[in-house]
Amino acid sequence: MCIYIILVVIIGSICRLYITKEFNILKKITLLLTLFSTVTLLAQQEEVEIKIQDTLYFNQCNSTSYQYIDYYKKTRFEEKDTSDLTHIYNWDFYNAFFNTGDFDVLRLPCSMKGKYGIIKHIMSISNEKNKSQTVVIAMIENNISAAYITEKAFLNDELIYAPKK
User: Fold this and answer.
1) Is 149 in contact with 69 (CB distance < 8 Å)?
2) pTM greater than the 0.70 cutoff
């Protein structure tokens, strides 16, 4: 066993001496390509401002439901629910939708993959650690269902953003 280890070390040293020049050149080329790729990726990343009326498509889903998107579906309607919410936004939308009727609330099921929601409201809330985070409310079906979307949904590629033009 000891002879085997010594042989491996000797062979490795001989190979290292022989290919050191070629390996250094290859290593430098690899480093330059990696650096170029990193700079290119950083240049491609741009900050996007999410706006009311933009569209969010429900993207990849790796289990039975999305991890960072809640699904609110009305189960009981009131007379006030008959108004069309298509052209209502911000707090007016939030109050008109959430302050009437009853809801089933669950994680957005993966069956919604490929469907979309229209951004109706954007707000900042504090979590249990008093850290502020942005929440987006997107209407899926008019007057019937909405998605409650946290920042982590964007960071984990659960959504595809399609700005309104």
Assistant:
1) yes
2) no
Give the model confidence (pLDDT) of 117-129 as tens digits: 999 999 998 878 8
Domain positions in the chain are 1-46, 55-162
* Burial degree of 107 (CB within 10 A; 0-12, 13-18, 19+): middle
